[in-house]
Design goal:
This is TauD/TfdA family dioxygenase. The chain has 8 helices and 19 strands. By secondary structure, the chain is of the alpha+beta class. The chain has a single domain, classed as Double-stranded beta-helix, CATH 3.60.130.10. The two termini are 12 Å apart. The model has no long low-confidence stretch (mean pLDDT 93).
Length: 300
């Protein structure tokens, strides 16, 4: 049975006693699922695994998203994506994963993201310190810290999340060669609507599900009030007291909960400082299913 060592901060715990090259027992999975809800970010250090092990471990949490371009996927295990700044023969071997600012993966789709599972293959170092931290914000705590009048005002309201917000932000950065999304491309990623306040499927507590990366409008408010409220929510949820930084070590497997956290990957490393992660993006069809919850959360 794994042991869970909390960071003592607002998020995060280290999981000891797991070898992810071996199948995960039902009891261990139930323990991890409960810890994920409680701590939001789980680090499993010291792993020496292949892409197939990462896939098999990730599939315990639900179906894996497969939208990444083929050239950024493991050729033998296409469910596993490659995040990297490494260039070989003039071509990047992976998708850049830093510089997007604060967001929640896949909130712009009707089926939300559930967890990201990353395996650190190469971590850039400088002066003996790791680079490329991933920052997290706790959305359980952010909801609980909202003024009562804001909770009452927004109860039952929804927000529209749109991929094009992220795309336009990246496109207009200095040096970007991105073109605007075509109508056909936008049609493939239509906006999605989700509650501003959501019941977390593991903890049963309320979270603030409204991130600056993709949320564009609170639908039940007029445009001006929506803009003011979003500005307030985004500033509120990124207060220092809600934040946690993960410092990567090669061999880390990191799991984080998209429903209960936001994240931001810090691009503080140069092109000649190689970074490489293997990733599985798990979608949330399964975790909201009552049968899944009855089996795994009651067991936990």
């Amino acid at each position: 049975m794994p042991t869970i060592e909390p960071t003592g901060q607002v998020l995060g715990a280290t999981v000891h006693g797991l070898d992810l090259s071996q199948p995960l027992s039902d009891a261990d999975f139930a323990s991890l699922l409960r810890a994920l809800g409680e701590h939001g970010v789980l680090r499993i250090p010291g792993q020496r695994i292949e892409a197939r092990h990462l896939r098999d471990f990730s599939l315990r949490f639900g179906p894996i998203q497969t939208g990444m371009a083929d050239r950024f996927r493991d050729a033998a295990v296409p469910e596993v994506g490659i995040l990297s700044n490494i260039v070989e023969d003039g071509r990047p071997i992976g998708l850049a994963d830093a510089g997007q600012d604060w967001h929640t993966d896949m909130s712009y789709t009707a089926t939300k993201g559930f967890v990201n599972v990353l395996y650190a293959v190469k971590v850039p170092m400088r002066d003996g310190k790791p680079l490329g931290d991933t920052l997290f914000a706790n959305m359980h705590a952010a909801y609980e810290g909202l003024p009562v009048e804001v909770k009452q005002r927004l109860a039952g309201m929804t927000a529209t999340h749109d991929f094009n917000i992220f795309w336009e932000r990246m496109r207009t950065r200095p040096g970007s060669a991105r073109a605007p999304l075509t109508p056909e491309q936008r049609a493939k990623r239509p906006p999605a609507v989700h509650p501003v306040f959501m019941t977390h499927p593991i903890t049963g507590r309320t979270v603030l599900y409204c991130n600056p990366g993709y949320a564009e409008r609170i639908n039940e408010l007029d445009e001006a009030e929506s803009a003011r409220m979003l500005d307030f929510l985004f500033a509120h949820q990124l207060q220092e007291k809600y934040l946690h930084a993960h410092h990567w070590t090669e061999g880390d497997v990191l799991i984080w909960d998209h429903i209960g956290t936001l994240h931001n990957a810090i691009p503080d490393y140069r092109p000649d400082e190689p970074r490489m992660m293997l990733r599985c993006q798990v979608m949330a069809q399964q975790v909201f299913d009552p049968g899944f919850q009855q089996r795994w959360l009651k067991a936990a």
